[in-house]
Design a protein that fits this description.
single chain, alpha+beta, GMP Synthetase, Chain A, domain 3, two-stranded antiparallel ribbon, 32% helix, elongated
């Protein structure tokens, strides 16, 4: 699936419209750069991809294993320094789970598809047309 992002000056704002052909969402500049804080920034979207993938992956796995999970919560923050983007993910799983199950869930969280992608050698090939 390809993500399309568009913006036009006639909108009168800095909001970027996004679509994958089925779903539609929006993003904006960081608040400090003049964006509207009601919309996620591109970094928010990146961090949210990891958080969502973690929760969805654990949800599927816990169901498949019949683990007594009551809830799954993931929070992701980041820090940018000297060309390094460091993400911090905290995962909380509630339910009647012994330490061995929690260890298994941590192993699976570290194998979610977005975690794998972000940990890989990422290459971006860009073309620009007028």
């Amino acid at each position: 699936m390809t993500i399309q992002a568009t913006w036009q000056p006639s909108q009168g704002n800095t909001i970027c419209n996004l679509t994958n052909g089925q779903a539609n969402w929006q993003a904006d500049l960081d608040d400090a750069a003049g964006g509207n804080p009601q919309y996620p920034s591109p970094h928010d979207l990146l961090d949210s991809a990891l958080a969502a993938c973690t929760v969805l992956t654990l949800q599927l796995y816990a169901r498949r294993k019949n683990y007594a999970v009551e809830s799954i919560h993931a929070s992701v923050s980041h820090e940018e320094t000297n060309g390094r983007y460091a993400m911090k993910r905290e995962v909380r799983v509630t339910g009647h789970l012994d330490p061995k199950i929690l260890e298994d869930l941590l192993r699976v969280a570290n194998k979610c598809p977005v975690h794998k992608s972000l940990s890989a050698d990422i290459v971006i090939d860009t073309t620009l047309t007028g």
